[in-house]
Design goal:
The longest helix is centred in the last third of the chain and has 26 residues. This protein starts with 9 loop residues before the first helix and ends with a helix. The chain is built from nine helices and no strands. 63% of the residues lie in helices and 0% in strands.
Length: 151
């Protein structure tokens, strides 16, 4: 299933599916995935890839953000996954390598063409910059936590 979305809400997807009067098999058919994929996503047995999450949201007629939990730190990674994009797709939109996208999302590198990056993620430059800072902060906190574990 490709890279997994860790912030996917299977319970929300199930509620939307049931409210729409769809069986798992019907949703699977609409999203062009297997019924097992739908079941695994709903139960949390596995998280769907960005492509599958996007297909499920489209099949349910909701924005991909509706299948993400509220209140989580909004990093570039979260923004990208909420739109159902892969790092490769963002890289193609911006004109860089997927590795560069990974490093930018982690806050390791800044960018010069802020408007182009923001457009690739489908957000304003201000929202993109805030998400970049959140990713950088998360990386810094993880590094501090690891340093504390070693001492």
């Amino acid at each position: 299933m490709g890279k997994r979305t860790t912030e996917f809400r299977g319970d929300r997807m199930q509620a939307l599916r049931q409210a729409g009067g769809l069986s798992r098999a019907q949703l699977a058919l609409l999203a062009q995935v297997s019924p097992e994929t739908v079941r695994n996503a709903e139960t949390g047995a596995c998280h769907p890839s960005a492509r599958v999450a996007r297909a499920l949201a489209v099949a349910l007629g909701v924005p991909i953000a509706d299948l993400s939990p509220p209140g989580e730190a909004i990093t570039l990674k979260v923004l990208r996954r909420r739109t159902g994009l892969t790092q490769k797709q963002v890289a193609e939109r911006v004109g860089v390598s997927p590795g560069m996208v990974s490093k930018v999302e982690a806050g390791m590198y800044g960018v010069r063409a802020l408007a182009r990056w923001a457009a690739a993620y489908g957000v304003s430059a201000r929202a993109w910059a805030a998400a970049w800072k959140a990713g950088r902060e998360r990386r810094r906190e993880e590094a501090e936590r690891k340093r504390g574990e070693r001492t």
